[in-house]
Structures are given as structure tokens and as C-alpha cells.
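Quick question, first post here. What does this chain look like in 3D?
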Amino acid sequence: MAGRGTGPDFVEALARGLDVLCAFEAHRGSMSLSEVAADTGLARPTARRLLLTLEELGYVRGTSDGFELTPRVLRLGMSYVGSLGLWDVARPHLESLVSQTHESSSMAQLDGSDIVYVARVAVPKIIALRVDVGTRFPAPVTSQGKVLLAGLDDDGVRATLAEPSRSGLVVAERDVEDLLEELRVVRARGWALADEELARGVRSVAVPVRDGAGVVRAAMNVTVHAAETSVETLTGHHLPLLLRAAGDVSADWALWQSRPQATLGA
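> Answer (accepted):
Ran it through. C-alpha cells below.
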């Protein structure tokens, strides 16, 4: 269950409804009422009322096994992505990069101790893990996660890693001091490598994407199959192309953020 607010305007019912939505994850798309109640810590009658309310609103639907999310929930996440302008700005650069490398490329942002994919252009290759927009992975074992963590200071990294992952994946824990040392290298050279740390056969390199103020706001990667593409090819051929593409995304994003806007009165 999500942490609870303490302010006088905090709406507990809304928080509970969001808890219910967050209970559905990629590895369990359909959940029974009992599973939702257990996962959220809510009483069954409360969980039932929230699920039926969400069903009326179109965010979940009933199944023979219980309930599942509907595509309508994408509006919640895509509103955030759209407000940043990331996808519109990044898409042509991602597509151009994929056409040059013939490998999948994605963008992710940090959410707690996880990365969340916000944009992706994929090629039809079989890898150990399925990745879609909205997919979560533990940050310390991914190239994008390392880049995003490297954008924080050491105290920020420790605080971020103190939050439990919500990816549903069980991965080997990284020693924090060892990770901090690696992140110092990432900051210095401007890119990060993950060599079969997330899953066997998955190798990737990532670089930062910055906003108009130079702050790291996202990470962009190229992912390959380790049996097909060596580290030397990934860092020697794909990385320069990735650095150029991410630089172009950062520049275009800065321009997008500085665009003039006008608000018309009613």
C-alpha cells in the first residue's frame, strides 16, 4: 500500500483507489477480489466497492477470474509523458537510431528505485524479457537505471535505493558502496553499461537525456542480445550513434520546453 498523507486535504478514498490500480502488474494482469484486498491491505468489501467504481469509470473490467485493467489506464501515464513532450520529441530520433543500429532503443525515467519505460522503438528480436511502455525494472541492474542514478548525489542514491522495487522481479542485490563507485565512473564518462545484469542474454548501453536546464530527466539506451553483439560492438559502434541521438533529443526537448505559450481566457 502506498504511503499515506497527513495533510488536512488528503483524500483517503482516492488514495485507496490508486492502491487498487497499482496492484495490477505485468506478471498478474488478472486479479481476484481476494488478491486485490490482500495486496492493498483493504477489507474485501472496500476493495469490492473500489473495483466496481473503477469498472464503471472504465479503468477495470470483470473477467471469469476476477478483474483486469483496461487500455483506459494508459491515459493516466500518457498524460504525464505527453506533458513532458518527451515522446513527440524523441520518436524521430529513436526511429533513426534503430534504423542505423538495427537494435531496439528505449527511453526511461526513474520512479523510486525502478526505471519506467516511457518510449520505445523495438525490432523483432527475441530477448529474455518483454519490454513495453510502462514496464518497470530495478534501476541498479539496468544501464538506464545507472545513468539516472548517476544524476543524483550519493545521499540521493541511498535514499532512492531504500525504496522497495515495484517491478515484481527478483534480482541480485548490488552492494551500495560498489554501486556508488560505478556511478562515479558513469558520471565521468557519460554512459553506462549493463552486461547481462538484468537477465541472461540482455546487454545494453545507456546515456542521459537532459532538459533545457541541463538536468538529467531521462535515459536512452540500445539493447542487444549478448550472444549476437559483443561489448566492443555495442560501445564502439552503437554508443557513438546513441550519444548523438540523445544529444539531439536533449537539444530538441530544450527548444520544446522554451516554446512560447498563451492561455486564452474563457
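Strands lie at 30-31, 60-62, 67-69, 104-111, 114-121, 136-138, 192-195, 202-210, 216-225.
The chain has nine helices and nine strands.
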